[in-house]
Specification:
The chain has 3 helices and 6 strands; from the N terminus they run ββαβαβαββ. Strands 1, 2, 3, 4, 5 and 6 form a 6-stranded mixed β-sheet that branches. The longest helix has 23 residues. The chain is 20% helix and 15% strand. With 221 residues, the chain is an alpha/beta fold.
Length: 221
Amino acid sequence: MFPTIGFLALGLALPAGPALAQSAAQPGAAPAVPLGPNPSECEIQAALFGAAGPGCPPIVMKRPPPPPVAAAPPPAPASAPTQAPAPVAVPALPGPPPDPPVAALKAGLRAAFRIGFDFNSARIRPESQAVLDRIGAVMTAPEAATARFRIVGHTDAVGGDAANRALSQRRADAVAEYLAERHGVRRDRLDTAGMGAREPLLPKTPKAAENRRVEIVNLGG
């Protein structure tokens, strides 16, 4: 309930706070990717956008498998064949289409970072500021300038639900304020929510330290 070390995971903006129902991530969002204690800006970009930015080496993130999807219902019986419409000629566009902005790639991706807080507090410990500084640099890079993000606090299953949700919300807010004040990330690009222990990273071990984290989800532009 009162960790000194948490994880921070990176997702279009939805209502924040207790009004959130079920999940704070986008429906169908990819599972969060736990990064190491000292990720580079290139690794953060690859985790949040699905591709590293200009000047970065190719990076492939090992993402957890998505939850199983229910089998699709059998197709309806085919109706009588109809005559296919005649093909329509479409003039070719001049040149190749422009590459999409990095921020628009695979919106909904999440990543987890180890962020330290003071005991039973939302004060970010100094040793964790370097990671947040890299996240701020990624968020303010030109290729990501239109992206929005949801910052979601999570705790382990130790302690009561109300206390855990309140603490996780305060820590998510603290991260958003740090990024806004230190790096000039516009506050309207940052949505926050506190989920307490309701979405463990490791469901089979709900009291594990890895469940104490703050997630940042790429919500797209």
